[in-house]
Amino acid sequence: GTTMLNIGCSLATQRKALKISQAALAQKIGVAQSTISYIEKGETSPTFDIIEKIIITGFNMTLHDFFTNKEISHKDFVISELSNSIEGLSEDKILLLCEVAKSMKS
Description:
Helix content is 73%, strand content 0%. 13% of the residues are buried. The chain is an all-alpha fold.
C-alpha cells in the first residue's frame, strides 16, 4: 500500500543520504539484502521490529528524528559510527586514535 511505499521510500532516501549500500545495511541488522530491497520498493510490509532495527541500528538515529524528517548527514553518521567503535577502548587507545586523526589533517 501507499504507507509501506512511503516508509520504504523514506528508508531508501535516508540510506542513500548516509551512503550505506543495501547489502551493508542488511548485514548490519541481520536480514537478507533482498528484504531491504523489497521494503524500499514497498513490495513487503516490514514489521515494526525491522523498521526499528533499520533506523536505530542501521542508521544510528532515533525513531523521533527519522519520523520528524531530521535527516542526519553522512558526516554525522560516520562520527556516530566512530564513537560507537571506540566505546570500551582504554583511554590510551582513544588518545592514540585522536593523534592519528590529527596527523591526517596535515
